[in-house]
Amino acid sequence: MPEWKRQFLAKKIAEKTKREEKEIKQKEADEKKYSEMPPWKAELFKRRDALAKAEAEAKAAAPPPAPKPAPVRSSLAARSPNGGNLKPWELELLQARQGKQ
Question: Are 24 and 12 in contact (CB under 8 A)?
Answer without folding.
Answer: no
